[in-house]
Structure of maleylacetoacetate isomerase:
Amino acid sequence: MTALRLLGPKGLPCAQFLRPQLSASICSSSVLNIETRAAPADEPRPLLYSFWSSSCSWRVRIALTLKNVPYDIQATDLLRTGEDHVYTDKYRKVNPMQTVPSLQIDGHTLCDSVAIMHYLEETRPTVPLLPQDVIKRAKVREIVELICASIQPLQNRSVLEHVGNEQSLVWAQHWITRGFQALECVLAGSAGKYCVGDELSMADVCLVPQVLNARRYKVDLTPYPNIVRLDHELQSLPAFKSCHPHQQTDCPPKFAGK
Ligand SMILES: N[C@@H](CCC(=O)N[C@@H](CS)C(=O)NCC(=O)O)C(=O)O
């Protein structure tokens, strides 16, 4: 792994990647300690705890791939089959919420796909997933929040289990539909080739896995032409294809490679 690390005072990442308009003052040479290092060859590769069909895991696989970060996968099952599943005491020590993904990277363990994407953005900015323009960045974050806070958690497996078999499909469809109505409106104003203008961003990384969830729960996508067009465009990109759930080593044979 070769990592370019831009560090501010006390080793914090340069604010340039957080708040571009402040970057000139905060990142002036008098206060900025820029450390560039190639990680030693024997430094372990990042380890991603991932489940093949988890949309949150897919987000991180796409982000790592887009940013050209080689990584290994520890398949971690959500179905309590096998030894390595999220509900073991061993995994609780990795991720106290007992969800995937988690990422071991640079000597740290990070949980939550969005936090992980921001960490990657701040430590590996060469392929950016946030636009420079502050309004576009805000729009990207709005879409990320819409998907990751207002849709996915409501149709997460553990929530559906709690709702019970009889109601779970209607429940998932209801919350995905409500979110997609809003998302379609937002994208009508923000999208170009991708979710926000023509630059690939975290919004795109989150969109595609959520559309797969919508298809899984048989949501009618006809009312959402922007969502469908963007999903189609993004799915043709190698980083999205190679990380697809059906390409994962823990994908059951009946879905694998399809
Ligand atoms: N906010 C978390 C959500 C993680 C999450 O809900 N992961 C799902 C799979 S996509 C999971 O592990 N569900 C199992 C459970 O909730 O018990 C993230 O973005 O990483």
User: Anything to note?
Assistant: Strands lie at 47-50, 72-75, 102-105, 108-111. The pocket of glutathione is lined by residues 54-56, 78, 86, 99-101, 112-114, 148, 156-158 (CB under 6 Å).
